[in-house]
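Build the 3D complex.
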Amino acid sequence: MTDAPTPAPEPSGWVKCWRWLESLDLTKPPAPLLRWLGILMIGVVYAAVGAPEQLGDWLWFAILGGILILPDIAGFAIGGFRLDLKQAQDDIATLRQDVNAQARASSAAGVAIGNDAIAAWTDALIRAARQANSDQASGPVAPWSPPGSGTRPAQSTARPDGT
Amino acid sequence: MTMTDIWLTAAAEAAFSELQATAPDQAAAVSEAINNITAREGRRIDLPGAPAAEPFLAIEPRDPDAPAVIYRHAANGEPGKWLVVSLMNRDDYRAARQAEQALAATPAAVRELVNGVVAGTVATVNVAAPTGTVTTT
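Done.
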């Protein structure tokens, strides 16, 4: 008697929430529209409430605005250090396409070829190779003498190196 | 061209002698094919076991049932210009050709896998030592 497999535990609410956040693509509609609306709201709040008087009050506006605009930043440079986020993103996308294309090709080839075909080709080549190599190690032992051209020479036992 | 340009291995010599005894028509076709070795280059067949610089070549005799002639250029230190290494069963020859063509259209990983297996098998055959007697004193 075998035990039934234990079902995987239900993920907690935090895990579900994190997975949902992880699945969001902030660069695809309607996310950009919502983000820029958020930035507009910051401006509206600024106009309604008035400019913060203390430096600490600016901080939250700056952080919120930075988070909202972050997906649209193509890169930044500080001194000699330059990070081109757009370029990196494009490189990763290209790499991902290449990997996917190779995976698809290998998968299709594996399905199309099948183990039987590979085994048959291997078998055919092994049989041919065995015949081609049946006595090659002995090297040349007799010069060719076509039938009807006279007496066939006796098979030489001499080695090409004269031994 | 002299006939000493073409040499045979013991296996090829034995196979031809047997063919003469059992199927003279096929032997005549094979003989004609061997005579033509110096006149026209055979078709390359990529099988393991040949010296790196001298790949195997193949000629198909006129008789469709006659074995294919497998040969190569003589390597350094070998007499003559050509060495007939074997007479290959025609069906096996065709199967090998088909396998070669089919493999050419497969991903490199599959080709390497098959070639590795074939080369390994041939290497095993080549190093298989004949059984003998060892006398110790």
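The two ends of chain B are 54 Å apart (CA to CA).
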